[in-house]
Amino acid sequence: MSTTEATETKTEIGFELNEDQLAIKEWIHDFAENTVRPAAHEWDEREETPWEIIQEAANIDLYSLEGLAQIWADPTGLTLPVVQEELFWGDAGIGMAIMGTTLAVAAIMGQGTGDQIGEWVPRCFGTKDDIKVASFCSSEPGSGSDVSAIRTTAKYDEATGDWILNGAKSWATNGGIADVHVVIATVDPSLKARGHAAFVVPKSEIAGISQGAKVKKHGLRASHTSDVNLDDARVPGAYLLGGKEKLDERIARAKEGTKSKGNASMATFEASRPTVGAQALGIARAAYDYALEYAKNREQFGRPIIDNQAIAFKLAEMKMEIDAARLLVWRAAWMGAGIFRGTPPKFANAEGSMAKLKAGQVATWATGEAIQILGGNGYTREYPVERMHRDSRIYEIFEGTSEIQKLVISRAISGIRIR
Ligand SMILES: Cc1cc2nc3c(=O)[nH]c(=O)nc-3n(C[C@H](O)[C@H](O)[C@H](O)COP(=O)(O)OP(=O)(O)OC[C@H]3O[C@@H](n4cnc5c(N)ncnc54)[C@H](O)[C@@H]3O)c2cc1C
Questions:
Q1: Contacts with 97 (C-beta within 8 Å, 6 or more apart), sequence order
Q2: Which among 57, 92, 134, 322 could disulfide-bond with 391, CB atoms 3.0 to 4.6 Å apart, if both were Cys?
């Protein structure tokens, strides 16, 4: 390799966004500032899905397969976290109402055949004239961090080729209000996670899937979260993601005790985590921006409160931690996008988990500091940092709790199955 080639390879990632990324960033920022933010308080109080805002996102092609495909297909991987950060800077509850569908989309893209992807992914979004949302249903009352404990069963009906699903799902984003539900069920509980299969269950077609209790939440209240029940839900064989042949092969390998391709599924998680981290980053930055302006304007003892190091240093640390988290998010996003550069995603030390862990911690901490800077006003619902603090808290819980991220990182760095 020549010196020039070596230098080019080394400078593949930079800290400046390219022209396309800057244009997309501005586009999303405008939407976040002018459409999402003004609606944030109302929908947080209403605790309902803001269909009007999702419609507006569809109208500008942000909420559509085409719009998101443009954002996903980026060889640097940075466009997606940039978009998430800007949107969630606008508001996290509405951000999740818009982006919650992508959890189901990611499962279909990751596990479906080409035909299934072609059929179901567009149906997750619906059309501009008839928008839909989608839901990913994995968690259950007894299965959160411990995914292997899933008890929803899928039984094969040899006579018809259908699958019969029974069980109860918890905390499903868009659960019951979605048409397309991606449901994780076990076909053989003795095989734990290796006995799992993913099914597309469209509510408009399948009797036996229904919404359970709607969850009343601390934050992200514009995003609908609900239990989902499956009572003898009869699902056609074609709705098993990946198809039966592949599932049978996997089950046979698991029964023989052959090692699974664990690294591939681990890489999938690692690749999706920076995206979630970027959402947390958006909340943290929103709280920092608000607190900085407030501190410059609020006067006590005859001078702005930012004149006090006690306040200014908080802001300095907030800015530093947010930037540090962004660097981890961008690094992991770049690693995860290896597939667009002709190499599989490469993670050495669970960098995706590091990004999500750090961004979640920073968001919870920075929004708390913002409340402190705003004093009594910060604690009221008249000011947005209180909502941001409530919204941030989930980023240490869903998509793998902070403790689970630490477990993943410590296993990756040690090679030991730490518990
Ligand atoms: C707003 C919201 C939206 C959600 N959306 C979805 C969705 O769309 N689809 C879906 O399937 N799920 C969803 N979830 C569920 C979410 O993924 C789970 O809540 C999460 O995985 C944690 O599981 P749990 O709540 O059962 O906590 P538990 O697993 O019971 O954990 C409780 C505590 O124990 C700790 N803990 C558990 N095991 C270990 C261990 N081995 N080592 C150290 N500490 C441990 C955890 O870190 C945590 O602090 C959502 C949840 C919420 C609140």
A1: 43, 49, 50, 53, 54, 133, 222, 223, 224
A2: 92
